[in-house]
Amino acid sequence: MLIQRYLIFAAFLLPIAAVALQFFINKEKKSSYLGKPTLDPFNFYTGKLTLFIPWVLFMIKASYPGIGYLSVPLFLAWAAVGLLWAGTLILTIALIQLGNSVAVGLPKEVTGLKTHGLYRFSRNPIYIGVFMMSIASVIYFPDLINAAFVLYGIYQHHQIILGEEKFLSERFGLEWKDYRKTVRRYF
User: Can you spell out the DSSP letters for 81-115?
Assistant: First the structure.
């Protein structure tokens, strides 16, 4: 359906616009967008890449609905689009709320601990949004390769989160420990 295709492409454009905005804000403030990986570089970057690939597959399936070896019922396709949009909104809002602390990896600059907005409910709303968008891709384009990318990416991102939590504990000490006691890692 044409409307689904437009909704899918719009859902991916929104976080891209938010990241681009943050990039230009960080550039103005002389902040670095690339931080230090929390895992060895291979696992860190393949984890990032394997959650990006399902998004591309989602858009390909939206453009060429006939590809793939499983057809998805219309209600399930719409459920995937709904999950995609929920993830997109969570991701975009969390990116904006993170402000100039946005970095791929650990930030090199001094930052503050973010505990407002979506960060009051989850310590990792960006990752929740990314996971939701990736799972939506598997629902919309059910393929073993797509599912494998998503599973590997989510596993690697969990490992990334554990490394980030160690960093946050060292950087923020008691403030982090208090925050960790009241706000869950995911939900």
Answer: HHHHHHHHHHHHHHHHHHGGG--BSB-SS--PPP-
